[in-house]
């Protein structure tokens, strides 16, 4: 829906069990969210879709699951301790806090309207600090950080992966995991939050081949979203300009999506050169060079990074799927998820509860559970149950009726077109698989 408002999406997510405010019964916690029954299913489906695309395709990519807690020197080497900051100001009157680069410091406070009340700009480190071990909390030797990104866990394990898996360049390491950033301002629902999940793949290659691989992964990553059924006209590239490009990066592009609050970053594809492994070599004292047995060369590989937010992908999928249309004078709300990521794949609905029809429907639903995530619903009129499934994005509704009791056939109702087809119970799995493979966004 082109004019989708964020409030509409937030309301749907709460009402239908996709996303809840964290600790809501205590007033909530800003920038932190819980994913409900449908939200957790959708998030896991997006994660699995990405993971399979990365690790089961033609590219040589292995997986990793590194820890959230890492040695303090990891973040010194990466530059996060000294440079991972935002400019911060406070209003002296109302005590509101703002990012200095997002407001006019010569204007009135956006909260209380007073002028000339801002403090001096100071740097605010975005990493969450904690302590490990039995050392007193004020002892700096016990200080560690919750990771602000998953990439560093891949870099510090580069040699472990090469030595244990005997990987040869070029190859990639993929990881999905949680990251934490103490954001000054959190806004736009789950787009920017303090606790989030990332899906990252670091591609290690020989210096000199990096530009070729950078172009390759740009093509690969933009085509990925088409496979998920995302509208192509809602995606675009943004190249980092001189004021955006990290000092160590050779080139960087963002895939942007047209969210309800306009175009925003969805995923980054970056040529990080050999900066990261060079830094960890310097700070750890360990040799992280790659030895090419065929040429006898030793060198520090270049890295092409693809970095996407899982929780941000979930917001993108919800935004892209949401639609409203008029059906016989009534508004139909529908989530047009690609069937491969829909939280519920099949709903089984008995036409009535009596005459053994409900029992038959329950048997069909139970049998389908081994193949699909299913739902069973026997309450209210069948039309209202269809609308209920439309609103959570279920692609296929199977209706069991009196004819089912005679000839073992059911009616399959398609979410997007609302068309209905009669098929045999024995054909349900093959029918759904065929429809999945030929699916195209309406």
Please summarize the sheet with the most strands: 7 strands, mixed
Distance between the termini: 12 Å
Strand content: 25-35%
* Structural domain count: 2
Strand order of the largest sheet: 3-10-11-17-14-13-12
Number of strand elements? 24
Question: What is the overall silhouette?
Answer: globular
Question: Can you tag this structure with a few keywords?
Answer:
442 residues, alpha+beta, Rossmann fold, 5-stranded mixed β-sheet, 13 helices
Description:
The protein has 442 residues and is of the alpha+beta class. It has two domains: 6-67 and 147-318, Bira Bifunctional Protein, Domain 2 (BirA Bifunctional Protein, domain 2, 2-Layer Sandwich); 344-437, Anticodon-binding domain (Rossmann fold, 3-Layer(aba) Sandwich). Helix content is 30%, strand content 29%. It has helices at residues 6-15, 37-55, 72-78, 80-83, 151-155, 158-165, 210-227, 275-284, 310-321, 357-368, 382-392, 402-407, 428-437; strands spanning 19-21, 33-35, 61-63, 69-70, 85-90, 97-99, 122-125, 129-131, 143-146, 171-180, 195-205, 235-239, 251-259, 262-271, 290-292, 297-299, 302-309, 322-327, 330-335, 346-350, 374-376, 396-400, 409-414, 420-424. The strands form seven sheets. Strands 3-10-11-17-14-13-12 form a seven-stranded mixed β-sheet. It has a five-stranded mixed β-sheet with strand order 21-20-22-23-24, with helices on both faces. β20 (346-350), α10 and β21 (374-376) form a beta-alpha-beta unit. The longest helix has 19 residues, at 37-55.
